[in-house]
Structures are given as C-alpha cells and as structure tokens.
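#struct-pred

JT: dropping the chains for the assembly here, can someone run the whole complex?
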Amino acid sequence: MAAGARATPTRTPPRPSSPAPRTEAVVPQDWASSVTLVSSHPTPPVVVVCGPKNSGKSTFSRILLNALLPRNGKVAYLDTDVGQPEFALPGCISFHIVDEALEDLLNPTLREAERCYFFGDISSKRDPEAYLNCLFHLYDYFVGKYRCDENKMLPLIINTPGWVKGAGFDMLVEMLRYICPTIVVQIRITAQSKNLPDGMFWLDDEQTGPEMININAAFHDALNRSLLIQKDSCGMRERRLVEYLKQCFPSNISLSTNKELAYALASLPPYQVPFSDVTVVHLHCEVPAGEIWRSLNATIVGLAISNVSDASRSIPYCVGLGIIRGIDVQKGLLYVITPVPLERLQSVDLLQQGLIEIPTTLLQVRGCVSPYMSTNVLHKISERDLYAGDG
Ligand SMILES: Nc1ncnc2c1ncn2[C@@H]1O[C@H](COP(=O)(O)OP(=O)(O)OP(=O)(O)O)[C@@H](O)[C@H]1O
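RK: done, full complex below.
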C-alpha cells in the first residue's frame, strides 16, 4: 500500500460452511448385492477382502460383518493390518470373535482379541516372514477351533492391508495360497494401475479357486464429495494407544485430555517385575547383552506368554501391551504400567520389544519429563542406579 493512502476497509466474504464429517457409510448397489451373496452362502464362508490402500476394504468388511451376524450369531475376524488395525493395538495381528453389530461403520474400534501376536512394527515390510508366520498361526488357530466341528463353524472375514504392490503383493499371494478362502472380494478404484490384477492372481492357471467378487470403491456421495478420505494413520495409532492406556484406570476417573492421562499414568503404581521372571526378545533389532534391560526403559513392550499348551507349533501370544516405566538394574527389577489384569499378567514370561512408541502426546506434557514420564516417578530411580553397570 502506498504511504498516505487510506485503506478501504474490506469485508471478508463469509466462508461457505464446510460439510459436516460423514457419519454413515454409503452402500452402493454392487456392495449391497455382494454382501447379500456372501451372507447367503450355504456354509459359513472364509472371506478375504483385498484391494489398494484407502479403497474401502475396512468399511466393506464392517458392513459384511454386520450382515453375517444375524445368521451365524458370531463372526470371526482376522485383523491383519499392523499399521491401521481394526480392533487391535498398533503392531498387533489379532483374531477376534464379534458377537454384536458394529455401530460405527466408518471408524475402527478397540476390542479385546481372542488371540493376538505382537509383530512390533507398523508395517510388515521389515520382516515379511515373521508377519506371515503370525498370520498363519492365527488362521490355524481359527481352523482348529471354529472349522473342525460342523456345528461350531463360524464365518471368517480377513481384511487385508492395502499394500498391494511389490513385496506387499507377494505377501498377499502367500496369504491367499495358505488360507484358500471360500470367497475373495476385490475392491477396485478408478486409478487402474493401483488395482490388483483381475481374477485369481495368486493361483496357477489350471487351479480352481474360490468365488471371486469384484466391486468398485464407493466413490461419491449425493453431494458429489469423494468418500475415500485419506486417513490420518499416525493420529489413529496414537488415539488407539491412548484409549488402551486409559483402561489402566476405573471408568469413573475423568481423563478427557492427554495431559490428564499423562499425569495419571505418571502417578499410577507400576507392577514390579523381577528380571528373573521374564525373557526379553527384541523383535526388529539386536541389542548387546549388557544393554538388554536398559534398552527397555520408557518403551512399549508386548506382554507375551511363551509356554503355549494347546499346540507344540504355537508361537508366544500377546495378552496386551505395557509401558516399561523404569528399570532398576541393581535390584534386578523393572516397573511396568499396563491395563492387563494381574491374573493374566502372572502368566506373562516374555517381553517383546518392537518399534511401537509411546505416543508423543503423552510424553510432551508440561511437568512430565520424557522418558520417565514424570519427575516424581513412584519408584524413583537415580542416575547412579540406572547407569551403574550390570555387566
Ligand atoms: N462406502 C463408504 N461410505 C462412506 N465412506 C467410505 C466408504 N468407503 C470408504 N469410505 C471412507 O474412505 C476412507 C477409506 O476407507 P477404508 O478405511 O474402509 O479403506 P481401506 O481400504 O480399509 O484403507 P486402508 O487400506 O488404508 O486400510 C475412510 O475414511 C472411509 O470412511
């Protein structure tokens, strides 16, 4: 503006109000007819839902689950996305039995797993073999419990990750070959190059495979808005962990902000675990023997049970996650915060450390000093205790 010129007051035109966030799933015709087809299958089917990232696999799976419930009473669900789990915690691959309709068709909800393995990372990329091993064990668990007796057969939904290119595609192929589903639902988006190949891409030509259903991503609603909203995966993981950690407290305690939760966690008496009661496994890195205990400090660990009695081939399963609140190397004790009830915790003999981190929103709170969450740690550990060598 030139000196001396007087500014003419301008009025900002009112902004068009942004549409309210969508609260209900849109069920296009092809989705509705495939849901009807699957739910009227003569025997409880094993259904794999696949397709590229953000194409609607989770939304479709929820709609399908609700449609399968009335006839079967319960529906089994294999939660395979370690980065954006449907019911489980980040880093987990889990098997669930759902016996009530899902109310929220657009958002995942935290539910207790019937069986869970802690993979310890938010992508299967780092260790595809270990990832598939967990997945196959869960599928075997399902077959052993819910497929052998004709009267107890349950349908199973397997919602697959959206990583469908390169190594992600190879893993999907292995998954489909192992599981041999009854029905495969493939969701396709308009960007053809991002889709999976047509047909039974995981089988050799001469093999006969499952029933294939192709549907299109639900693309636009009545107001022509795109339905496929990019999800905030990182935020979702943080919120899921926050929700889980709130379970450390009775539901009548108000923990409406992360700050309140951070303070509450900092003043929660932790469980005291002797080193001799647990073995530590680092899932995705190697740690020098002398640093094993210290390396756990202020990390999230999978609390696992290794002495599995039901099958000799089984791998340690996870009963929940915990925060290692502090380590006292001299006394040989570690301090754990977890919502896992004491009676379950008593069977835990393995701490699995991966790459799942404590949400920063719980660490960066005024008065709570990272990494020990608080200056007033209940079992206050001095610098000397922490760094006096244990070998
Ligand atoms: N039928 C639908 N009605 C309303 N919203 C939808 C529908 N399908 C997908 N969306 C929206 O699009 C986004 C992606 O959907 P969804 O999470 O189901 O995809 P996804 O394929 O499981 O994603 P990812 O591969 O990342 O796990 C979500 O925000 C979801 O709410």
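JT: nice. Residues 22, 25-26, 53-59, 81, 84, 106, 162, 218, 227-229, 231 surround adenosine-5'-triphosphate (CB under 6 Å). The two ends are 71 Å apart (CA to CA).
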